[in-house]
Write a structure and sequence with these properties.
With about 210 residues, the chain is mainly α. The chain is built from eight helices and no strands.
Length: about 210
């Protein structure tokens, strides 16, 4: 688990340090005549992933703070640590809240079953707040993934890659969905689905795509 987190962290740091280097490298994998469209698709994927990451970080921070405050008010031991765990595990879709609730409820049982019940109600309330208020507000203009697609993708990634696959399942699904919408639904089927808000292309309009350097 720790190794997977470190791998994701350092990969994100290296890509974030020189994003244009990897962007150009991906474009060179496409034929010259396809690079203009590939440039648009990659830019759209980048927009979608940035929106998802910002929304996810905000949600992790909010959940962690609310959990820590609630557990402190309930008098649960190690409330700050449990809040930090809840915030970090929020990165894992669907299963993260369940995994974070287990140690919190167990810590409540150390005092009394009644306190464990209150902790369980707190965890349910926080997840209700997330599912009905935070997630709709933060994710409505970001990643639009149906719950069933998310669940199937999460399960497949977990089976193939284990815990590391669970960590990256949603951003991978988001990138795949944008590519499918733009390359198949728009280009092949002909429907305009508005896959993503594509920013201005890094390739100037008057410059041929095959001249990308």
């Amino acid at each position: 688990m720790v190794g997977g987190l470190l791998l994701i962290l350092f990969t994100a740091i290296y890509i974030g340090a020189e994003p244009h280097l990897y962007y150009k490298g991906l474009l060179h994998l496409f034929p010259h005549e396809a690079r203009r469209r590939a440039d648009e698709v990659l830019a759209a994927i980048g927009v979608s992933l940035r929106k998802w990451l910002v929304a996810q970080l905000i949600m992790m921070a909010v959940i962690g703070v609310i959990d820590a405050i609630g557990l402190t008010l309930l008098g649960v031991k190690a409330a700050l640590a449990l809040g930090l765990i809840a915030g970090l595990l929020e990165f894992i879709p669907l299963l993260g809240p369940i995994l974070s609730a287990i140690p919190a409820i167990a810590m409540g049982f150390l005092d009394s079953p009644q306190k464990a019940l209150f902790v369980a109600l707190l965890c349910w309330g926080v997840q209700f707040l997330e599912g009905h208020i935070l997630a709709p507000l933060l994710m409505k203009r970001g990643v639009d993934l149906p719950p069933v697609v998310t669940l199937i993708g999460l399960s497949l990634m977990a089976l193939v890659f284990g815990f590391l696959g669970m960590m990256v399942a949603v951003p991978v699904l988001a990138a795949v969905m944008v590519a499918i919408k733009m390359l198949y639904v728009e280009d092949v089927v002909g429907d305009d689905v508005g896959a993503a808000d594509t920013p201005e292309s890094p390739v100037p309009p008057d410059r041929p795509a095959h001249e990308i350097a």
